[in-house]
Amino acid sequence: MSHSLTCLSFHKLHGHTDAVYVRVCLLFILCATLLMHPATATAAAIPVELKHTEQGWQLLRDGKPYFIKGAGGKDSLEQLAAAGANSIRTWGADDIDDLLDEAHALGLTVTLGIWLGHERHGFDYNDAGQVQEQFEKARQTVLRYKDHPALLVWGLGNEMEGFESGDNPAIWKAVNDIAVMVKQLDPHHPTMTITAELGGGRLDGVQKHCPAIDIHGINSYGGAPSLPERYRKGGGRKPYILTEFGPPGGWESGTAEWGAPFELTSTEKAAFYKRSYRKAILDNRGLALGSYAFLWGHK
């Protein structure tokens, strides 16, 4: 039953004055709002800033140092928090309200993804109409969620770069335009864009053509242990977050003579996770702001 029907029924049954009726309706609406969003009904945004110190780059959340110990995914968050994680990453913002509330209730922050189109999947960054429509969708997402207390970082896109034909400079212009808009609407949360590894002009694209991007998010699997060295040699200056990592993917592990990709044992996978985390993150604090393991769920 809708709130208006409930209030109308109350009014007819009890015959109260219009003033009392209005007060009762407002009370119903307030209670319904609290029930639907208990974690955020009275909560406010928690500011996050990126600071450069003598020790290097550091995230500050509510003025306190914050090192990301996270995973990508949205399921079984209680177990994730109990395991010691403090953050999750999403790739988009569809149906995200309840997830943000649940994360906040469990003490988890969220790197909130804003999905941006891929040219290899049909998006055309040279089409001004498509780019503007994408920009407006991103704008609406920022306006809707910028004050949520679970929000940590804006993740603008995921692997938009072109793999076969090289990187279109228009991609980086569109990313930077969105980042500028995000900063205007929400100066309290850093911006990040995510690439698959560093090759093909991706590092230059982010470093040179996206000044409004604060953090370079990098998805790296087999190459994660060597990522910091390659990042520095390539001219990387922005702090980075390892936004996806895990054992070598099927595209980099080689294949058996019958075409199936080689796969590590579970013990070998665990050792590779540990090595990647130590080499790419723990040994490079001050440049690395933390990580999101891939994938938290049933995979």
Mean pLDDT: 89
CATH topology of the largest domain: TIM Barrel
DSSP strand (E) fraction?
A: 15-25%
Number of strands: 11
Sheet with the most strands, sense and barrel status: 8 strands, parallel, barrel
State the helix count: 9
Report on this model:
With 299 residues, the protein is of the alpha/beta class. The chain has two domains: 1-36; 45-293, Alpha-Beta Barrel (TIM Barrel). It is 37% helix and 19% strand. The chain is built from nine helices and eleven strands. It has an eight-stranded parallel barrel, surrounded by five helices. A three-stranded antiparallel sheet has the order 1-2-3, with no helix packed on it. Helix 1 (3-14) packs antiparallel against helix 2 (18-36) and helix 5 (128-145) packs parallel to helix 6. The longest helix has 19 residues, at 18-36. The two termini are 40 Å apart. Residues 1-17 and 29-42 have low confidence and may be disordered.
Highlighted features:
eight-stranded parallel β-barrel, 299 residues, 2 domains, globular, alpha/beta, TIM Barrel
Short note summarizing the structure:
This protein has 299 residues and is of the alpha/beta class.
SSE map:
Elements: H1 3-14, H2 18-36, E1 48-53, E2 56-61, E3 64-65, E4 68-72, H3 77-82, E5 87-89, H4 97-105, E6 109-114, H5 128-145, E7 151-158, H6 169-185, E8 191-196, H7 202-209, E9 215-219, H8 227-233, E10 240-244, H9 266-280, E11 288-293
Parallel strand pairs: 4-5, 4-11, 5-6, 6-7, 7-8, 8-9, 9-10, 10-11
Antiparallel strand pairs: 1-2, 2-3
